[in-house]
Design brief:
This protein has 357 residues and is α/β, with parallel strands linked by helices. The chain has 14 helices and ten strands. Bound molecules: pyridoxal-5'-phosphate.
């Protein structure tokens, strides 16, 4: 008997998130039907899938009587911003340990701006890699404990067995929503960074016997680094709920074909995906995570799946990141100040020419 219902969780998000078909995009591409699971709409501070891991992680923190949440990440991290928001909602303090960007000042935009608005305490660390942030968090926690506080550390990206448990609900929703639309899911496509979301989807699929074919598309780590992390996380999380089935390593599909030039560096395919989704579906993607994974979903839907099959893209959130790329995005429109120029062009060209044919 699985002990899913006994996992402590705090309700920091609003579920289920919507599930919708991208009809215009699918017919434009001519491949499989594309669907989107709108986890950018989890209802907490601009949303994002990380809200789900925070539900179970903060559930444990509250159960342990924590008063201060410490987490870490890059300044662009969505997990960090959502942790600050969730901590506020629960009346807990939040300390964000952030890797100071090398060679550039910290842009007060996107998630960083929101971290400030949320009032979280920020500690910058001069470290070479994100892994270097973990000992900084341990030191801070020891200092807080010494003065009588009760800190709780959430690893970067929420990557942990407890975090993975938060995604069982996502699988449950997907199964129900696919049934309501009378479709079989032939592929689920998701951005994979720390591996927490992909682990959670595989765990949920195993626990609920949903047989979801999950494709993780890397946004920073290599495939070789990510595969064992995911296998380990699924097994450890499974033990927490008394799961007696093991994940077949063949079910861990990780692809690095859509990473482009590297973490947080826009790829041409990703930027094209932003344009296409915005103009065809009114759906917003960010250059760092969801643009690249959507570029992959579209490629897989046209190259590897047939019309009539169903490819589900998990919109994991990250939309505040759009504002970090104002320069890239506006230069694609070929105008330094697109608003006034567009109006002027419209006036000169006449209304008929600015309307869609
Ligand atoms: C918007 C978004 N999508 C996907 C990911 C990847 O998730 P994970 O770190 O759990 O692999 C992240 C986090 O890094 C994210 O912020």
């Amino acid at each position: 008997m699985l002990q899913i219902d006994q996992v402590p969780a705090t309700p920091v998000g609003q579920y289920p998130t919507p599930f919708q078909e991208l009809k215009r995009l699918s017919s434009h591409l001519g491949g499989a039907r594309l669907w989107v699971k709108r986890d950018d709409m989890t209802g907490l501070a601009f949303g994002g899938s990380k809200t789900r891991a925070l539900g179970t992680l903060l559930g444990r923190a509250v159960a342990q009587g924590a008063d201060t949440i410490i987490t870490c990440g890059p300044t662009t991290s969505n997990h960090v911003r959502l942790t600050a928001a969730a901590a506020n909602q629960l009346g807990l303090n939040a300390i964000l340990v952030l890797k100071r960007p090398q060679g550039s000042s910290v842009a007060m935009q996107g998630n960083m701006l929101l971290n400030h608005v949320l009032g979280a305490r920020i500690v910058y660390a001069d470290v070479d890699s994100l892994a270097g942030l973990e000992p900084v968090m341990q030191e801070l926690a020891a200092e807080l404990t010494a003065v009588g506080r009760r800190p709780f550390i959430i690893p970067g990206g929420g990557y942990s067995p407890v975090g993975a448990l938060g995604y069982i609900g996502l699988v449950q929703e997907l199964v129900q929503q696919a049934a309501a639309h009378r479709i079989d899911i032939d592929a689920v496509v998701v951005a994979s960074g720390s591996g927490c979301i992909q682990s959670g989807l595989l765990l949920g699929s195993l626990a609920l016997d949903a047989k979801l074919p999950v494709h993780g598309l890397t946004i920073n780590r290599s495939v070789a680094e990510l595969m064992p992390r995911i296998l380990h996380d699924v097994e450890a999380a499974g033990r927490l709920i008394g799961l007696d089935r093991c994940l077949d390593p063949d079910q861990v599909v990780v692809l690095d074909d859509y990473l482009g030039p590297g973490y947080a560096v826009p790829s041409e395919a990703g930027m094209a995906a932003i344009d296409l989704l915005a103009r065809m579906e009114g759906l917003l993607l960010d250059p760092c995570y969801t643009a690249k994974s959507m570029a992959g979903a579209m490629d897989l839907a046209t190259r590897c799946f047939k019309p009539g099959q169903n490819v589900v893209f998990i919109h994991t959130g990250g939309t505040p990141g759009i504002f970090n790329y104002a320069g890239h995005l506006s230069s694609r429109r070929g105008a330094a100040s697109p608003g006034p120029d567009d109006v002027q062009a419209g006036a000169e060209a006449g209304v008929a020419q600015v309307l869609r044919p």
